[in-house]
Structure formats: structure tokens, C-alpha cells
Amino acid sequence: MRVDRLLSMLLIISGKGTVTGKALAEHFEVSLRTIYRDIEKISEAGIPVAASSGKGGGYYIMDSYNISSLFLNRDEAHTFVTVMKNLHGLFGRNEAFNDIMLKVEHTYKAEPDKDKLTLDMSHFSMEQEIKEYLGIISRAITDNRLLVFKYINRDMEYLERTVEPSSIDFRYGHWYVTGFCRIRRDYRRFKLVRIRQLEQGPAFEKRELAADRIAEVIEQSYSQREIQVVLRFTSRIGAQLTEYFQKEKISRSEDGFYLVSDTFPYEEGLLKFILSFGKECELLEPRELRAELQQYIRNMLLPYND
Fold it and tell me: Are 10 and 67 in contact (CB under 8 A)?
């Protein structure tokens, strides 16, 4: 679209300081004559684009004119670009991402020593598949198309699911797709690493429910399965506890142990989380969960009963 090209051209000139017509023509894959006409349109809009000849010459915006920097300072813009680059790598080819990156990057002149922030939001065992899933889900949300897939439950059973996707979330170190599950007849959140054979289905009519309301419905659903847990940790792991729990949830007992009292979702991941601390952690309460953990450990040992 020409309007998009004019805006992008303006930001490129503003960001680089001086740009030749040839460089602009190559960038936008148009003729030099088209660039001349575009520059005229920008000037007619009241933006003073001037031209200089000779070595190092080209189009530039006169110093008297100030283009708003999208209300971001340079550090904010750099952080934004870094995040966008990582998301672009995850979501694959996406014209919207390309346009945003172009407009923001060229509004701010690059500073080599600023590249200090990196993000890696991929999953170590399914990196390529997760990237493909993110692309499929993103397009399905944009086009209002159903998602059809198999979902693995705690018993390693493959359950058919048909979902009206509404958002993609990254939380607790994992990617999730949120949407209305037509099997459960309610909004649910699905972890991408447990999804198999993901495909787009037919188009659907989007439900009129605000994003904050969807989040509220999901949180209410999960809160019904929450459980109060008390854990005891040895002093050797004390310094690491704040990496996993809020400071106010941690206390020190007279015998030197650390106690953590907190609420957790009552799901399969809870037992695995507790066991991840090994012998440094003991589950004290509730008693029924302690019994469940004991049985879980016994089942773990079955393959090793030679």
C-alpha cells in the first residue's frame, strides 16, 4: 500500500539521516521515478524533505522539523525491537511483524553497544514444532478459524479437541493457546508442548467476550482446583527459594529448616515440581497430597525393582 510505503520511507530517512533515491528504490523494490513521486507527496504533506548532491548526498529531513519518536525513548525502543525480533523468529514469516520492525528500527539510529538484551523463549525439546504451532495459531486467531488437535492428558491419552482460539500466552516458561473449547463448553488454556497434529479448521463466528473477561473465566476455572500446600526445605537450598516463591510465603523454623506455605494449582505438574527439589524438600501438608506423592514415588521405582 502506498500510504504504508510513504510512512516507512519517512521513517527510514529520519532514522538514517540521509538516504539516496537509489537505496530507497532498491529497498521498496520500485522504480526511481516512483521514489521521486513519493518524495513529492511527502513534501506536499508539509514535511520538509530536502536533497543534497555529491558524495554522501541524498534525501534528508530538515533539522527544523522534528518527527515524534513514537513516544518511546531510545532505550525503550531498543527493548521493543529486541522483543519483536525474538517474536518474529518464533512466529515465522509475518508481514505485520516486518512492517513494525521496519518502522521502529528506522526511527532510531542503531547503537552497536546497545545489543545487550537477548531473549530465548523456545522449548529445548520441541523448538521447531513450537515455532510452527505459533504460526498456525497466530493465523487462526487473525482469520477466526478453529484449531483442531490432539491433547495429551496425564495418562498419556490423546484427546480430541476443537478450540476457538482467542490468544497466545507465554507464562511459567511455556507457551499456551487460550480459547473456547467446544468439547468442554468453556474457555480453557492449552500448553503447546502437549499438543499434537495441530491443524486449522473451518471459520467460526467470534464470541463477544472481552479479553479480561476470558482471563477471569479461566482463572476461576483453575482456582477451583487450587490446593494449599506446606513444604519444608533444608538450609542448603534456602538461598534459592526466592527464585520459586514469594518472599512473604517463606519462613524459617527454629530447627533451621525453611517452610513455604502457598497455594498451587492441583494438577499433575505439582508433584513433579515438588520432586524437582529432590531430598532438599519434604511435603508436609495436606496429608492426602503427601500420600499421593508417596504413591507417585513408588510407581517411579517400579521399573528399577530388579
Answer: yes
Spatial contact of 146 and 140, defined as CB atoms under 8 Å apart: yes
Cβ–Cβ < 8 Å for 207, 182: no
Please state which architecture CATH assigns to domain 2-61: Orthogonal Bundle (1.10)
Pair 171, 156: CB distance under 8 Å: no
Extract the residue ranges of the chain whose pLDDT is less than 70: 1-4, 63-127, 154-155, 172-173, 210-211, 217-225, 268
Give SS3 for 213. Answer: helix
C-alpha cell, 45: 504533506
Return residue ranges of the chain for CATH 3.30.70. 226-304
Q: Cell 519434604 sits at which residue? A: 282
The CATH 1.10.10.10 portion of the chain extends over 2-61
Q: Indicate left, alpha or beta for 163 from its phi (over 0: left) and psi (-120 to 50: alpha).
A: beta
> Could you tell me the three cell numbers for 184?
468442554
Q: What angle do CA 174, 214, 220 make, to 5 degrees?
A: 80
Q: What tens digit of pLDDT does each residue of 279-288 get?
A: 999 999 999 9
pLDDT of 70 reads 44
Encode pLDDT of 207-239 as tens digits: 877 667 777 766 666 555 678 999 999 988 877
CATH of 226-304, one of 3.30.1490, 1.20.5, 3.30.70, 3.90.1570: 3.30.70
Could you tell me if 109 and 15 are in contact, meaning their C-beta atoms sit under 8 angstroms apart?
A: yes
SS3 category, 177: strand
Contact present, 24 and 16 (Cβ < 8 Å): no
Residue 205 is given by DSSP the state P
**Closest among 206, 216, 208, 151 to 184, alpha carbons compared:** 151
Per CATH, domain 127-223 is 2.60.40 = no
